[in-house]
Amino acid sequence: MKTPLQIDLRSIIRKRLPEGKGERIPGFIFTVLERLICQKELNEMLRFGFPKEGHQFARAILQHLDIKLKVEGLENITPGRHVFVSNHPLGGLDGIALIALLGERYGDDGIRFLVNDMLMNVDPLKKVFLPVNKFGAQGRGVARAIDESYASDRQVMIFPAGLVSRLGEKGVIADLDWQKTFVTKSVEHGRDIIPIRFVAHNRPSFYRIAKWRKKLNVKVNLEQILLPSEVCHTRNVTFRIIIGKPISPEKLLAEGLSSKESARKIRSEVYRLLPPEKI
After folding, report:
1. pTM for this entry
2. What's the CA gap between 63 and 236, in Å, rounded?
């Protein structure tokens, strides 16, 4: 019998450590970590969404958190095959919201969302995810699956920054540089690029920790640990999603820019839909 996915941080950590070492970790350490990632609240969400999958699960999570979507520019989604590219402000709920939105339009089998391979552990969304960041022989298989998705009739979704938006100069929250692959693949497979501006941000503490980690040259991505708690603390809000006009591969070729330059330009166009937030 199928059961809802549940997070058990103690079990995860003990399995990853050498035999016997996990048992030496004091219980209060696990308790602190479980509270830090909001394990109890996350498991409540997973139970609420069960047994739904794909966009229906995503919509259930939004319902559980009382999150609504205000979508502008739906008329810009023309018929055809697209690559939907968005800024990445939240590190969780932004992806869930886009899966709910586009999944309702195209169905779960009609979308593929390129994500970090670690997210393949989120079983209810696995059917719409396409993992990246693999290596070796398995990596070649994933690269082939990505090419097949771009060549198919499915819609492709991606956060080209890869990482969550950060706090920059003058208190502006914005993506880091966008990777160029979505441009090369869009041109290669004749897909329009549809830019999306997702209007949201995490709590100020997230950005402060990220900023100080960088200043202190700490290599471990400490702020990434806080992303689950950002999901749990985002309730009773409305996300504004602005959909821009499609950018054809013919237009990209006519501009004569490199893929990297085109990615930078499209990132700028996303923020022209609405300037970045300040905190």
Report:
1. 0.92
2. 9
Q: How many CB atoms lie within 10 A of CB 226?
A: 20
CA distances from 261 to 84, 156, 157, 211, 256 (A): 18, 21, 20, 27, 10
3 state DSSP class of 98: helix
Angle made by CA atoms 216, 220, 223, in degrees to the nearest 5: 85
Confidence label for 169 from pLDDT (cuts 50, 70 and 90)? confident
Taking alpha carbons only, the member of 108, 11, 115 closest to residue 59 is 108
Backbone angles phi, psi at 136, to 5 degrees: 70, -150
Q: Which amino acid is at 201?
A: H
**Closest to 230 in 3D by CA, of 89, 63, 121, 25:** 89
Task: Summarize pLDDT for 99-145 with one digit per residue, the tens.
Answer: 999 999 999 999 999 998 878 889 999 999 998 865 555 567 778 88
What sign has the CA pseudo-torsion 199, 41, 105, 80?
positive
CB–CB of 154/114 below 8 Å? Answer: no
pLDDT attached to residue 137: 52
End-to-end CA distance of the chain: 47
For helices 39-49 and 27-36, give the axis angle rounded to 10 degrees. Answer: 60
CA pair distance 170, 207, nearest whole angstrom: 13
Amino acid at 208: R
Residue in 229, 221, 205 with CA at minimum distance from that of residue 39? 229
Instruction: Quickly tell me which residue has 């958190």 as its tokens.
Output: 65
């319902």: which residue's tokens? 63
H runs (alpha helix) in the chain: 9-16, 27-36, 39-49, 54-64, 93-106, 136-151, 181-188, 204-215, 222-225, 227-232, 249-255, 259-273
Structure tokens at 223: 């702020």
